[in-house]
Design brief:
23% strand, eleven-stranded mixed beta sheet, four-stranded antiparallel beta sheet, Dipeptide-binding Protein, domain 3, D-Maltodextrin-Binding Protein, domain 2
Length: 491
């Protein structure tokens, strides 16, 4: 009797207690840790994955559907000739250190990005700027040397976020932006913590705090998610485990697309890859579907050029480099390499590269090409491959949106130098008519496919596993970002 009475009292107390407060913090895992925290001086998309739209903001920004919206610029006017952009900045915006964000900061950011000694990984985005003038604290005028239909799009990149001269010295370790979250701590090798910015100019996010946890190993990722040690994993690295999460009511699985063209990049200046016939042989030695099935467990869309299949201007050129190992052997013989050759295959950490690399190595071996595989961490890959161009082959997913323009940069890491392509990109930049732009983009896609610049593999899928109660996560990845501004917990 006494026991039942006590149970009844406990139950009554529980029922009369106030409802549990809604959760306001989030632990979200990513596979890749940033090498540092300045998105304006590194090619690593892992920096944007943490900081884009959370900590840093640009004049414009990408939305979850890939559209470009106003950011720190409230609105803008474009001159009739398309060469002058006058931006009106939002009033009353401050950086996380309390300093005012104004037109002087915009000028500092754009001038720094386009300076001769700029370390900006996407310096070409700013090359068309001829002058930046401060009109008043909330008005800045940007003059271009020629009209550029992509300019507002370019200003939405993570590489174009607005930074301040007062905090630039320590930005790699202590990023100070204008975003809805401020940076708190970085425990290297483990996590980055951010918290809600109480002085944010816009709508306050629902989350009070968030932790980005870095888990590179796919097995560890599965274990952490299944044990609910983490609340979500964006870009979940073990696609073979997705069916288990889909069958478990505790979780939700979002499978979206990315802007990530996954390529087998070839060093076009390094023999024998300086010979187009050899590059063509490599392309025909690759079985894309086997890589998608073996490395990605079926997630991914085959591509035959460097362009996203979901873009309306995509041209399907996969047949041009169809899997044909006999043709690959014939082409190698034609290039004077009937006995094959040996080259390096340097692989960064993501699963698509490490797993895909083993499959590609076997496919190349079947036609006589031996690869010496080296697994690199991101910092090493950026140093050796991206900056040092010390590689024969590598696998990487280019997650920047609409980035076919990289093929117009002869000093880019795969070192493709084609004056006709460069001219085509210049014409594209000065063209605003949609039909004419579509035609130029079709020509561009075809030109790099014809030149077999790289081995085009697949468009990277983007699976996210999350607690079923979380809402507002991006399904697709129109840019490399984990935007938490609209994320909340449901009851």
């Amino acid at each position: 009797m006494t026991q039942h009475f006590l149970r009844g009292v406990a139950l009554a107390a529980l029922l009369s207690a106030p409802a549990l407060a809604q959760q306001t913090d989030l632990t979200i895992a990513l596979q890749l840790e940033p090498p540092h925290l300045d998105p304006t001086s590194a090619a690593a998309g892992a920096i944007d994955s943490v900081l884009y739209s959370n900590v840093f903001e640009g004049l414009t920004r990408f939305m979850s559907d890939g559209s470009v919206a106003a950011g720190l610029a409230e609105n803008w006017e474009i001159s009739e000739d398309g060469t002058t952009y006058t931006f009106t900045l939002r009033d009353g915006v401050t950086f996380h250190d309390g300093t005012t964000m104004d037109a002087e900061d915009v000028k500092f950011t754009l001038d720094r990005a386009r300076a001769e000694d700029s370390a900006n990984a996407q310096k070409a985005l700013f090359a068309g700027i001829s002058d930046v003038t401060v009109i008043d604290p909330t008005t800045v005028e940007v003059k271009l040397s020629a009209p550029d239909g992509n300019f507002l799009f370019n200003m939405a990149w993570g590489d174009a976020v607005i930074v301040a001269p007062e905090s630039i010295e320590n930005i790699k370790q202590t990023p100070i932006g204008t975003g809805p979250f401020k940076f708190d701590t970085w425990v290297q090798g483990d996590r980055i913590e951010i918290s809600r910015n109480p002085d944010y100019w816009g709508d306050a996010p629902a989350l009070e705090a968030a932790t980005f946890k870095f888990i590179s190993d796919p097995t560890a990722a599965f274990a952490a998610m299944m044990a609910q040690d983490i609340d979500a994993f964006a870009g979940f690295p073990a696609p073979e485990n997705l069916p288990q999460f889909e069958a478990d009511p505790r979780f939700q699985v979002l499978v979206g697309s990315t802007e990530g063209e996954t390529i087998l990049a070839m060093n076009n200046k390094l023999p024998p890859f300086d010979n187009k016939i050899v590059r063509q042989a490599v392309a025909h030695a690759i079985d894309r579907q086997a890589i998608i099935d073996g490395a990605m467990f079926g997630l991914g869309t085959p591509i035959g050029t460097h362009f996203a299949p979901h873009n309306p201007d995509y041209v399907d050129l996969t047949a041009q480099s169809a899997y044909d190992p006999e043709k690959a052997k014939t082409l190698l013989a034609e290039a004077g390499l009937a006995d094959g050759f040996t080259t390096t295959l340097k692989l960064p950490p993501p699963s698509y590269a490490r797993r895909g690399g083993e499959i590609i190595a076997a496919q190349l071996r079947a036609v006589g090409i031996e690869t010496e595989i080296t697994n690199l961490e991101w910092a090493q890959w950026l140093e050796e491959v991206f900056r040092g161009k010390d590689f024969g082959l590598t696998i990487v997913s280019h997650t920047e949106p609409f980035d076919i323009g990289i093929y117009a940069r002869p000093d880019y890491y795969f070192q493709y130098d084609n004056a006709a392509f460069q001219k085509l990109m210049t014409t594209l930049g000065a063209t605003s008519d949609p039909a004419a732009r579509s035609d130029l983009l079709a020509q561009a896609q075809t030109m790099i496919a014809d030149d077999y610049v790289n081995g085009y593999l697949f468009q990277l899928a983007f699976p996210t596993v999350a607690d079923a109660r979380i809402t507002g996560l991006w399904q697709n990845a129109p840019t490399q970002a984990t935007d938490l501004t609209g994320v909340s917990w449901s009851e």
